[in-house]
Design a protein that fits this description.
CATH class: Mainly Beta
CATH topology: Jelly Rolls
Helix content: 10-25%
Largest sheet: 7 strands, antiparallel
CATH superfamily: Jelly Rolls
CATH architecture: Sandwich
Amino acid sequence: MIMTDSLKQVNEIFNRTNKELDTIKDLLEKGDMIIEGGRLKQNGNIELETIYDIDSTVSIGKFLKQGNIMKSHVHDNIVEYLICIKGSFGITLPYGYRILKIKDCASIPEGCLHSTTALEDISMIIAICVPAEKSYKESMKKCNNRGE
């Protein structure tokens, strides 16, 4: 089959996007995120603490500085709700960009590549995953196993 230039471009975009579809587990395995003190941490600038983990997970993300970015990732078979509770955030999605201010909520469809950027110092967000995000639960278990 002969590919047209347009089809080649679409194929290149698809392949490039597929390479970026890291899950939280992938980011942990690559060392882009670590578990420390029962929290997921990225570059010492972002901390994500899971506070509930039964049928869903509820986590609180603290971004210390304006411009801190939670790397692009996906949640397989999970819908995530992001609620801004302090400061403000930019949510980057394949189909656009959204700003969240205090009390605003964004729904991230399952398998959707997204990243979150703090637009102010010490911004905080609640992440609710339905069903539970196993990697978030894992950080909580490691903390509880150490008796912290």
